[in-house]
């Protein structure tokens, strides 16, 4: 069973930056597509960024394009989300997700999830 552990959330002022990191417990993780989703209170879970297992393709939520960057290091079994120019509307719980051949925006397709990390952006 693959376990995903996120880190790096916290409280930041608008315009600031945070870097989220997700580490997997098993080597199998290196061959999986990965993504970061977020969910704010009362809202549906939405894709923030996704990356294929090879890193050759990425996809972003329109509102974060140009501000967030997803990257992965298969040797370290990690996937990161660099978040710059943060806005109050980015406040949410951020989840790392992984799955085999699931690259895309459908959160139901991802079989493995982290516990989530809170990101709060103050105005």
Number of strands: 11
- Main sheet attributes: strand count, strand direction, barrel closure: 7 strands, mixed
Strand content: over 45%
Secondary-structure-based class equals mainly beta
Average predicted local confidence, pLDDT: 94
Shape: globular
What radius of gyration results from the CA coordinates? Answer: 13 Å
Spans with pLDDT under 50 lasting ≥5 residues? none
Break the fold down into its secondary structure elements and pairings.
Blueprint: E1 4-7, E2 10-13, E3 18-24, E4 33-39, E5 46-51, E6 58-60, E7 68-73, E8 78-83, E9 92-99, E10 112-113, E11 117-122
Parallel strand pairs: 2-11
Antiparallel strand pairs: 1-3, 3-8, 4-5, 4-9, 5-6, 7-8, 9-10, 9-11
How would you characterize this protein structure?
The protein has 123 residues and is mostly beta strands. 0% of the residues lie in helices and 48% in strands. The protein contains no helices and eleven strands. The chain has strands at 4-7, 10-13, 18-24, 33-39, 46-51, 58-60, 68-73, 78-83, 92-99, 112-113, 117-122. Strands 2, 4, 5, 6, 9, 10 and 11 form a seven-stranded mixed sheet that branches. β4 (33-39) and β5 (46-51) form a beta hairpin. It is globular. The model has no long low-confidence stretch (mean pLDDT 94).
């Amino acid at each position: 069973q693959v376990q995903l552990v996120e880190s790096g959330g916290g409280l930041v002022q608008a315009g600031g930056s945070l870097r989220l990191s997700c580490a997997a417990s098993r080597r199998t993780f290196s061959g999986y597509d990965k993504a970061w989703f977020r969910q704010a209170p009362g809202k549906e879970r939405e894709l923030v960024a996704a990356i294929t297992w090879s890193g050759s393709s990425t996809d972003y939520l329109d509102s974060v394009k140009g501000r967030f960057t997803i990257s992965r290091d298969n040797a370290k079994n990690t996937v990161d989300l660099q978040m710059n120019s943060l806005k109050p509307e980015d406040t949410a719980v951020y989840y790392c997700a992984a799955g085999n051949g699931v690259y895309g925006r459908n959160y139901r397709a991802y079989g493995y999830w982290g516990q989530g990390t809170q990101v709060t952006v103050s105005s």
